[in-house]
Design brief:
Layout lengths: L2 H6 L10 E3 L5 E8 L2 E5 L7 E4 L4 E2 L2 H18 L4
Antiparallel strand pairs: 1-2, 1-5, 2-3, 3-4
Length: 82
């Protein structure tokens, strides 16, 4: 199975450290999973949010990178440098 095919498969269980995308398209690192709910945090830190595990899908490397770039751009704008 190629890397692209593996990226499309949904893991049976989410574990801390996995990178996932929620139903709204937000990408984050899984911090914890409890009773069908995953707790995610943006890749570059920030406020944690929760999402039902059945709505999560693995984030492709490009999605994770895009999320990191968006977070960096937001921080820059907030500092008034852009």
């Amino acid at each position: 199975m190629s890397g692209d095919e593996m990226a499309c498969e949904h893991p049976q269980q989410w574990e801390a450290g996995d990178v996932a995308k929620d139903a709204e398209g937000h990408v984050g690192r899984v911090m914890d999973v409890r009773v069908g709910t995953a707790f995610l945090r943006p890749l570059n830190g920030g406020v944690e949010w929760s999402a039902p595990v059945e709505e999560l899908e693995p984030a492709a490397q490009s999605g994770a990178l895009s999320a990191a770039v968006d977070a960096a751009n937001t921080r820059t704008r907030e500092r008034g440098r852009l």
